[in-house]
From TrEMBL:
It holds the Pfam family Y_phosphatase3. PANTHER family: TYROSINE SPECIFIC PROTEIN PHOSPHATASES DOMAIN-CONTAINING PROTEIN, TYROSINE-PROTEIN PHOSPHATASE. This is Tyrosine-protein phosphatase. InterPro entries: Prot-tyrosine_phosphatase-like, Tyr/Ser_Pase_IphP-type, Tyr_Pase_AS, Tyr_Pase_dom. It comes from Promicromonospora aerolata. It comes from the Bacteria. Belongs to the protein-tyrosine phosphatase family. Residues 112-148 form the Tyrosine specific protein phosphatases domain.
Amino acid sequence: MTDYTPLHLDWPGCLNVRDLGGLPLSGGGTVRERALVRSDSPSFLTDDGVAAATAYRLARIIDLRRPWENEEWPSLLADHPGYLSLPVQQPDDPEEGPWVHLYTGLLDRHPDLFARAVAALADAPEGPVLVHCVAGKDRTGLVVALALSLVGADADALADDYELTNERLAPRYAKLPEDREIPAGREIPPTRHVIVAALEHLRARHGSVEAYLTRGGLTPGHVRALRARLVG
């Protein structure tokens, strides 16, 4: 565990919005503020929430949800000139059981989609970039973890940030019906070991996160741009 203090943003309607500025790097220093923001879906935003998100002057919005999710719960920020729909799943992807299997399955099947999302963060215009899915937990957690790993984020701080989502979304989960269907092995919200295991899986199979993303099409130029954006 680290003493990193997350920078939560008040965008009414969303519960899980934070600027990752201040997150420590393993070699010293921190991630820049107003460079990378993660959140749950902007479809939850109230009018005041839309105003708050707009006031943050986002340079790009990376929506990781699938097309049917966009249709059912349209993003209230979709008219933003920097909005991009970049799903990291295909419609026929299986819903694996335990959380680690879900994550490693997605990563193994779609290095191109994850590399595309990280590249969109790297080459965005100057300003904050928002990455989100529905909860801002799983798909967002993976893309953010890949990006932060590339710039040398402290592993404990990265895991702490990932797990924080459970606390932020607890009020919403408490309102869900008790009889909702949950895939086997995924009854408990994922804890920090899940993102740690997913990254270890990539390193064991590919040698490094960078090698995995390179296989998907990320270029050295993207890596340099990402480090300049997030580290300065």
